[in-house]
Amino acid sequence: MKLDEVQTLMEELYGAADRERGVPSTVAWLCEELGELAQAVRKGTREQQVHEFGDVMAWLASLANQCDISLDDAMARYRENPP
């Protein structure tokens, strides 16, 4: 799945609810999922890691959608002029 497809899927599945929740709450959920990913990477199974990577991507896409940011655009600098 490409990044724009991830954003489209998250918009279709959760867009209205995500906008109602708002950016601050979405950031909080993203941070919580990052913590769960960190724990899964340290102590979890591969299945748990895959699950948590998916959750982080979903919340990141939701946040980008709410901020009207394309993840493709955000990643372009890594292709064009990596930091």
Provide keyphrases for this structure.
single chain; globular
Q: What's the average pLDDT?
A: 97
Question: Tell me about the biggest sheet?
Answer: none
- Helix segment count? 4
Structural class: mainly alpha
The CATH class assignment is Mainly Alpha
The general outline is globular
Tell me about this structure.
This protein is mostly helical. The protein has one domain (3-80): MazG-like (Helix Hairpins), CATH 1.10.287. The protein has helices at residues 3-21, 23-43, 46-66, 71-80. The longest helix is centred in the middle third of the chain and has 21 residues, at 23-43. It is globular and about 35 Å long.
Write a short abstract of this structure.
It contains four helices and no strands. The chain has 83 residues and is mainly alpha-helical. The longest helix has 21 residues, at 23-43.
What's the layout of helices and strands?
Elements: H1 3-21, H2 23-43, H3 46-66, H4 71-80
Helix pairs in contact: 1-3, 2-3
